Amino acid sequence: MVVQMDEIKNNYDLGLFGDTLKRIVLKKYPHRLTDFIDSFSSNQVKCKTWLVSELLNVLKEKSQIKCNKITLLGSWYGIVLVPLLIDNVKGIESIELIDMDADALSIGRKFLGKEYNGVSLSYTELDINFTDFTNRYSNIVINTSCEHMIPMDSVEFQNDKDVLYILQSNDMFSIREHVNCVNDNEEFTNQSGLKRLYYHGKKRLVGQDKEKYWRFMIVGRRDE
Ligand SMILES: C[S@@+](CC[C@H](N)C(=O)[O-])C[C@H]1O[C@@H](n2cnc3c(N)ncnc32)[C@H](O)[C@@H]1O
Questions:
Q1: Ligand 1 atom closest to 170 (CA)
Q2: Can you give the CATH number for the domain in which 169 is found?
Q3: Residue 83, in any domain of the structure
Q4: In whole angstroms, what is the distance from residue 189 CA to residue 38 CA?
Q5: pLDDT tier at 208 (50, 70, 90 boundaries)?
Q6: Which residues line ligand 1 (CB under 6 A)?
Q7: CA 65 – ligand 1 centroid, Å
Q8: Is residue 4 part of a domain?
């Protein structure tokens, strides 16, 4: 049975969201308001929901895959993806959000806390381009910011062969911070180091400046 995107629950408390928005972002980080609002755009919600529904489809087929520890690389605020994961995927014990943007992590922490619906959350400030991950363990590694950093084949976890990688990128080459866009999923797969793909797909999206672009997603592992 295939999980449809509209079957995904989105339970984050809107009242808590509004209160925290006013108390934290508006009062303490007003300069981050536009960036913060961008993290909730309809495209953001669509692509994070897409990710969770395809993860659920993979987990249905591959029951041996564990979800205990999830790492989010380039997590940004994490406020769309973290509740979607926790409210829809069974068995998650902890999620680590990793980003080089200390403010994004601090704001994310104010919204989500150290624990969300029984799952422990940690926030780590790191530049992924300069980090050795080989002493870090994770069951699932998610990076929806691949277009912002060096190719993912440069990232290797302690238990790398067992890690389920879920990666998103895009072809918005015109944006300055997008240092590593791709043209298609073949190029994306080649630079990811993934050898066994469980899913690949793409979505045609329209950006806020009406520019059309593709968002790509691949899900897989590095063992042959
Ligand atoms: C604009 S946001 C997220 C965009 C992405 N398309 C998405 O939908 O999730 C990009 C995030 O990647 C982070 N980032 C970019 N390069 C990074 C690096 N080398 N190490 C850690 N975080 C990085 C930024 O700080 C930012 O929070």
A1: 6
A2: 3.40.50.150
A3: yes
A4: 27
A5: confident
A6: 44, 74, 76, 99-101, 104, 127-129, 144-145, 148-149
A7: 26
A8: no
Question: Does residue 198 form part of some domain?
Answer: yes
pLDDT in tens, 146-185: 999 999 999 999 999 999 999 999 999 999 999 999 999 9
Domain count, the chain: 1
Q: Is residue 98 part of a domain?
A: yes
Ligand 1 center–CA 1 separation, angstroms: 33
Please give the backbone phi and psi of residue 145, each rounded to the nearest 5 degrees, phi first: -120, 30
Spatial CB neighbours of 30, under 8 Å, sequence gap ≥ 6? none
CA of 72 relative to ligand 1 center, distance in Å: 10
Q: What tokens were used for 135?
A: 């002493």
Instruction: Kindly report, residue by residue over 64-111, the tens digit of the pLDDT.
Output: 999 999 999 999 999 999 999 999 999 999 999 999 999 999 999 999
End-to-end CA distance of the chain: 26
Question: Residue 76 is part of which domain span?
Answer: 41-221
Bridge partners of 72?
97, 142
